Amino acid sequence: MSVFFQTGKFCIFRKSFNNPFCNLLLLRNYSDPSKKFIKFNDVVEQRRAEARRSLVVQVNSESSFSELYGYCSKYAPIKDVYHYRNTEKEHFMLIEFETEENVKEVLQVCSSHQKDLDVMPIQSPFLWFKAAANNKETYKVPSSKSLATKDGITVIDDDILFEELLNCETMSNQMQLLYERTKLNDLGIRLRFMVARQFEVIFKSLYANAVVHPFGSSVNGFGKMGCDLDLVLTNDLTEEMSGAGRRLVFQEKRVEGGARAGGGGASARQLELLGALLELRVPGAAAVRRVLAARVPILKCAHVLAAASVDLCCTNTSGVYMSELLWMFGSLDPRVRPLTFAVRRWATAVGLTNPHPGRWITNFPLTLMVLFFLQQKRKTGFILPSVRFLVSKAGKQDIRIAEENINCTFLRDLNKLPQETYGQCEEDLETLLLQFFEFYAQFDFQEKAISINEGVPVRKPNALPLYIVNPLEQALNVSRNVSYEECERLKLEVRNAAWQLEAELEGKKEEDWGLLGLIERKGSRGLKKLLRVGNSHRLVSVKDLFKDDDFTSDTNTKSHQTKSDTEIEKSVKEMKQSMDNVEKKEQRMKFKNSQIASEVFRIRRNKIV
Ligand code: CTP
Ligand code: MG
Questions:
Q1: What pLDDT score was predicted for residue 264?
Q2: Predicted local distance difference test score (pLDDT) of residue 142
Q3: Where's the PAP-associated domain (predicted)?
C-alpha cells in the first residue's frame, strides 16, 4: 500500500493544513502592513473554511434568489449568494452562511428524495430547492441584499476579449487585461473547494481521517476559468489522534498489492473503490474514468453540478507542495502571472499545448519555463530567486516530507526573504515577453536542462529532447513525454514569436497588433482580420455571416468593401468551413452531454424553484 494510507507519515503535511488562520489573514492585512505576503496555507485554510460555511443549491432560475434567500435565512444568517450556470445551463446558487454551525443547522432541515427505489439519498453540500407545497408563504429580502454574482463562472467570449485587447493602449496593458479577464475567479475557486469538501464529506465514511486537497492550477495562481480540478485524498493521523497517550487503536484493513504505484498497487485498488463511490454515491460526479496503470494512478470525472473536470489521486501529496511553490513564485512579483498567462495562451494558439495528453508540452512545464526565465540575472538584479535560495532560507517550521520521502522543505514565509533578492528590474510585461521568446530562441536545448532549483541552465543527464527538472524530485524530468518533433516545434515557435514581436516594434499598429497576433489561433486569423478591417464598428454578427443566402447575395458584402470580392468570398468560405466544424463538434458534445446526463440522477425541473 502506498504510504498514503499508512499511519503517521504525513502528520507534518497534515499539520500545515490544519491551522485555522483565516482570521489572522484578515487581521494581518490591516494590523501589520510590513508583512505583505500571505502564506499559501493561510489562503488554502481560508478557502476550506469558506467551503465549510457554504452550500450549493440548484434552483430554477436566477429569479429564485428572493425565495431561496428568504427560506434559508429563516434558519441561519446568510453572508452572500452567488449565482452560476453549469454547462447544461442549469441554474445554481452558492450560499455562504455566517458560520460553519449555520450550515449544520440548515442541513438538519433538509429533506431527501424518497420516491424512486433507484435513488438513494446522501448528505452532501450539493442540494436542490423544491417548489413550495402551497404558495402562501412570502419572503422578504432586505433591499441591501442582492446576488453577489449572476452567471458567475461564464468564460469570456473570445470575440469580446479580442475586441478589448484591440482597444488597449499598450501590449503590457493587453497582457494585464488577458490575465484579469481569463484567470480563475473567486466563484470558480469557491466551487472547486466545494467539490473537494463534498468528496471529503463522503469519503470520511470510509477513511477515518480523509482530507481532500485541491492542487494544481485551481490553487497555484496560474489557473484560468474552466481549468481542471486536481484533487488529492490524504488519510493521515491528526496531531490529536497521534498522541502517545491514546492506547486504544482502531483495527485496520491492510490492502493486498503492496505500496507500489500503478495498476495492482494499493493506491490503485483504493481508487477502484473510490471510482465506484463516485459513480454510485457522489451527486454530480459523472463519466468516471480510471487511469490506474500510471505512475500516479488517477480517477477522472466530470462534476456536472460544479461545472468542472476532476482528476483525483491519492498518493501525490508532493503535488500540493508543488502548487505552494508555484503560488509563492507567482506572489513574489506582479508580472509573473500575467506573463505566464500570455505564454500559455500563445502556446495554445500555436498548437504547442493541447488539452489531451500526448507527446507535447503541457501547461505545468511551460510555467516552469517562464519561472526559469525570470530567474535569470539582469543588470538590476533578479525578478525571482532560485528554489535553492528558498531552501537555504528555510527554518524548522518549513520542513515538509511527502510520500516516498520526497523532501519538500523550502521557506514558506516570503516576508522573510531579503527584498533585494526578487522583483529587481523595471522591465514592463511587453519587454519581458519579447525577452522570454529571445531567451528560448537561443537556449541550448541540446545540451542544457531547465532547472528552477538552480536558476541557471544545467547539464542534461540524458538525451531526451526537452529536459525540465522537477523542482521537488530533481531526478525526474517533467517534460519527459515531449518528443523530438514537438521540441523542434517549440524552438521554431519561440523564434517565430520573437521575430513577430521584434518586427512589430518597428512597424505601425495593425488590426492584430501586440498580443493579438500571438494568441489568435492561426486558422482563425484571416477571419478575425476580415472582421476587424477598419475597426470595431465594422464587426458583424458571426451568425449573420453564415446564413446560407448571404453567400449567394452580393449585396450584403458591398457595404464592407475594402478588400476585393474574391478575397472576402474566400475568407467567408473559410469561416463557414470552420463554423461547420465547430457546429459538428458542438453536436458531438451535446450527444456526449446527454449521455452524461442519463448517467447521473437528474432532478426533475418542474420541482425546482
Ligand atoms: N505535476 C507534477 N509533475 C508533472 C505534472 C504535474 O508535479 N509532470 C503537478 C503540478 O503540481 C501540477 C499538478 O500536478 O500543477 C497538476 O497537473 P496539471 O493538471 O497537468 O497542470 P496544472 O498546473 O493544473 O495546469 P492546467 O491548468 O493545465 O491543468
Ligand atoms: Mg490541472
A1: 61
A2: 84
A3: 431-460
Q: What would the pLDDT profile of 156-204 be if each residue is shown by its tens digit?
A: 999 999 999 999 999 999 999 999 999 999 999 999 999 999 999 999 9
Name which residue sits closest to atom 28 of ligand 1, judged by CA.
363
CA-proximal residue: ligand 1, atom 6 (nearest) = 364
Give the right CATH number for 3-128 from 3.30.70.330, 1.20.210.10, 3.30.428.10, 1.20.1250.20.
3.30.70.330
Cell, residue 568: 472576402
Q: Residue 226: left (phi > 0), alpha (psi -120 to 50), or beta? A: left
**pLDDT, tens digit, for every residue of 92-141?**
999 999 999 999 999 999 988 766 667 888 999 999 999 888 766 777 78
Looking at all shown ligands, the one closest to residue 217's CA atom is 1
* Ligand 1 in reach of 323 Cβ (< 6 A): yes
Q: How far apart are CA 462 and CA 446, in angstroms?
A: 10
451, 462 in Cβ contact below 8 A? no
Give the pLDDT score at 296.
87
Q: Which ligand is nearest to the CA of 215?
A: 1
From 236, 239, 235, 213, select the one nearest 41 (Cα to Cα).
Answer: 213
Q: Which CATH number fits domain 334-506: 3.40.50.2000, 1.10.10.10, 3.30.460.10, 1.10.1410.10?
A: 1.10.1410.10
Pinpoint the alpha helices (H) of 419-547. Answer: 429-441, 484-506, 515-519, 525-532, 542-545
Residue 364: CB within 6 Å of ligand 1? yes
**Cβ-based neighbour number of residue 470 at 10 Å:** 21
Residue closest via CA to ligand 1's atom 9 equals: 319
Interval between CA 216 and ligand 1 midpoint (Å): 5
Triad 542, 544, 545: Cα angle to 5°: 65
Residue ranges near ligand 2 (ion) with Cβ within 5 Å: 216-217, 228, 230
pLDDT (0 to 100) of residue 609:
56
Pocket flag, ligand 1, residue 227 (CB < 6 Å): yes
Please indicate whether residue 267, judged by its CB atom, sits closer than 6 Å to ligand 1: no
217 Cβ inside 6 Å of ligand 1: yes
Ligand 2 centroid distance, CA of 104 (Å): 31
Out of 182, 364, 404, 470, mutate this one to test ligand 1's pocket (max ligand atoms within 8 Å of CB): namely: 364
pLDDT at 265: 79
Instruction: Tell me which ligand sits closest to the C-alpha of residue 232.
Output: 1
Q: Where are the domains of the chain?
A: 3-128, 334-506, 523-605
Ligand in closest contact with the CA of 353: 1
Q: What is the pLDDT of residues 445-489, one digit of tens each?
A: 999 999 999 999 999 999 999 999 999 999 999 999 999 999 999
Q: Do the domains at 3-128 and 334-506 have one common CATH topology?
A: no
Across 233-242, 255-264, 550-559, 567-576, which has the greatest mean pLDDT?
233-242
Q: Is 122 exposed, middle or buried (0-12, 13-18, 19+ CB in 10 A)?
A: middle
Q: Distance of alpha carbon 376 from its chain centroid, rounded?
A: 27
